[in-house]
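Researcher: Quick one. two chains, 709 residues in total.
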Amino acid sequence: MVKPLDRIGDAERAVIAERTATGYAVPALEHFADTEDVLRALLERLLPGLPATIDLAAFVDSHTGQAMGRGDRRPGTPPEPELFTAGLQVLADTGFADRSEDDQRTLIGRMRNGAADTELGMPAKDFIDRLLDKALAGYLAHPDTWIRIGFTGPAYPEGYAWIGPAEAIARHDKKPGWDRL
Amino acid sequence: MGPAVKTPPLRPDELRRIMRHHDGTVDACIIGSGAAGGVLAKELAQAGMTVVVLEAGDWLDTRTDLVNDELSMLGRIDWDDLRISDGDDPLRLGRVNTGRAVGGTTVHYTAMTLRLDPSDFSVASTDGMGVDWPFGYDDLAPYYWAVEHALPVSGPRSSVWPSGAPYPHGELPWSAKDHLIGAGLDKVGYRTEMTPHAIATGPTNGRSACMYYGFCIDGCKSDAKGSVNISYLPKAIAAGAEIRPGCFATRIETENSRAIGVTYLSDGEERFQPAERVFVCCYAIETPRLLLNSDNLANSSDQVGRNLMVHSGPIVYGRFDQPVNSFITPPVGIFTRDPYPSDPSRGFVRGYVFNTYAPFPINFAHSLTNSNPDLWGDDLMDVLDEYAHWGLLAGLSEVLPDPDNRVTLAGETDDNGVPVAKVTFSYGDNDRALIDAMRVDGERVMHAAGADRILFNDGHHHLLGTCRMGTDPATSVVDPDCRSHDVHNLWICDGSVFPTVGAVNPSLTIQALATRSARQLTTGQRPE
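Model:
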């Protein structure tokens, strides 16, 4: 349950409103328009059953190249835009999007375990790991996901300092008005 | 202490209005406004010195610039510039261990404020590994006390372990995760206490008490957390210090073996700040990078960049039937220090602490998927769907120094053409034995608490070492006052100087060291 929008701060409300309204969608991908089918297939295997309200391919595309709190890179691994472009292109060349879901899963499992770098001729583990990181940031920043997984989102400015046993019990037992607490 | 001043304002725009500006040569130029730099600025300015602090990051207003939202803050308060990470155990670098803002890493730290243990100062003498500190716990204790009261720290009224208890503020409340996992710790025989935090639980100096937003690591909007930009820098500014945000130091300039000032970039323009004394407070990667980029400054010992240490920290994730709802209080809860003392019969030396922990969703997922290559697809979605049912027990253990774990300069340069750091890191045998034992022990605790599925994260925290403190100029970079052996008006004062690292979060010790350095310089006396 996310707090009612009129009870949270302006900056937090703006973030929630924007993500809810757009779901990150863009008119067209900027970086990966040519390999969009591969990107979407990868994301669907990595995070199956994504709701239609969240466009993770668009999120990944628009956030590619942003460090987002992580600056380390292995020697020999290219910067993220090149890494993502190369990874998606290699998979496109092997017809990834048209292969069976089982085939796709097998290859992803090998990439995640570092067993496909030689076969694909690129740092495939770095590629799939960073892609999953980026996708997870988008998925888990969306208010629909918060409701689904039971995260309450921002509580600024009132916080939870006032929670006492009575409120906690009311929430737990879903007593009348609990969802306004 | 300097003259008493009335409570200074907290908001950056108000602080800017009262802030003095210094032209020409200053008494002290401090590079970095984090845990150490902020303390030095306050101590030196209150002692009457003219002080300029160069900070690469922005000066954020905690109420209006911080957003209680993980995604909004990812990269906003982190040092996530390029670093090349190599070795058998390449480190993850960014949010997990370094900050960039006025206030440095303390803007996003969890605010755990445990003291080192007395035994941590003599690892070589007792365990035959690593090195001893050049002084002992008793020498640092008065400075710990001074920092705990300046932040201020909340914590238990008494403790079974060496600590600052009784603390100026009462402890934070136990949350659901603490009761749940605390029962497991109790069953295996570990004693527990609420962790001391630099988080005020009552009003102080115009700051709010903790409101339990839970977003400590995305920056505290209530100002209850004693980030340096809230606890120390307002007092530094009131005493005449100048903070210059957006200023990236590229070189320390020298003349006849003395530092004469700092060259830095501001809005893409190169500038020079002349100074009588230079203090480097950029943490254990950027500090050696700056020295190495300054013609290998202060490095006659060849120790600059060596002995990089982290704290290894497997986090044990346990799934419980009942929701844990861990996110409604600060992320760190109770802790135990019972597995801390060195006991060679365990198959390794040194030890660890356990504490409960609660990450927000993105942090939760990243830390799991980074360590578990088979966690993706349907299983990952199931784990995420039960986010509120997972409780975390975080281990934090000592890593011993190894001169081959080091910071050097990489072939790559940053956007300004300055060579970036190459970080090489591999765990040693003792480190690995400790990590393995912690995982086994943590799993035992979580099962005792009733968890029915366990996952691990193989994480690490903090960046320490790389400019070792010692009495011998041949084997150390700075003396016990954090002053360079080679360049007598240059201080290195941050986590870089730790000879060994114990197994507690380092910020309190960094701040105690900074207080000690400043007071040795200005008065040569201990605090009262």
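Chain A is about 50% helix and 0% strand.
Researcher: Thanks, that's what I needed.
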